[in-house]
Amino acid sequence: MTNKAVISLTTGTEELEKVTVAFLVAVGAAETGRETLIFMTQEAVRLATTGIARGVACDGCPPLGDLLERYRVAGGKYLVCPICFDTRGLDKADLIEGAEIGGTIPLWNWIGDDNTVSFSY
After folding, report:
1. Where are the beta strands (DSSP E) in the chain?
2. Cβ contact 38:68 at 8 Å
3. What pTM was computed for the model?
């Protein structure tokens, strides 16, 4: 059994339902004891900045802010594409807890030689 999970997320609040599903998967992995990383690219990088990850995707869906808090408490981490982040003119001082700037080499270093479950949204 693998002890790591990586979720690749490319979209932000413009597709809130997709983001919610990605976070539900990430929270599930982290809360069951897996080391969990969300690799954020494209518009998803905005979610790694303070105050952006808000909203409710649908009736019965948990608020996105609650999912981020559960993910944080469970020890979940974020790796934020530096090219996507810089292209959007975002400020590194606004990164949320658990987020760091890093591209594909840090991603592969995090995965290492372990078997890792991956999801892509």
Report:
1. 4-9, 35-40, 77-80, 99-101, 116-120
2. no
3. 0.94
